[in-house]
Amino acid sequence: MEDRPCFETQIGNTTIKIRSALPFMTAEEQAQWFQDNDSLPEVRMMKRAWIRALHHIEKEKSDSA
């Protein structure tokens, strides 16, 4: 097995292991990684989900005000 960083989290009964350095990168390194890999479908899906989440949060804030 490779000696790479492994990000591990537990959601319910499911253990998720991510063999990627991304969770361990600085904010600047992550931003550069997303910019460099913008053409990957996984990156595009994550960005769309992120935008939807931010939109939902702002909508909830404006509805409660």
Automatic annotation (TrEMBL):
Q: Which domain of life does the UniProt lineage start with?
A: Bacteria
Protein name in UniProt: Uncharacterized protein
What species is given as this protein's source?
Answer: Aneurinibacillus thermoaerophilus
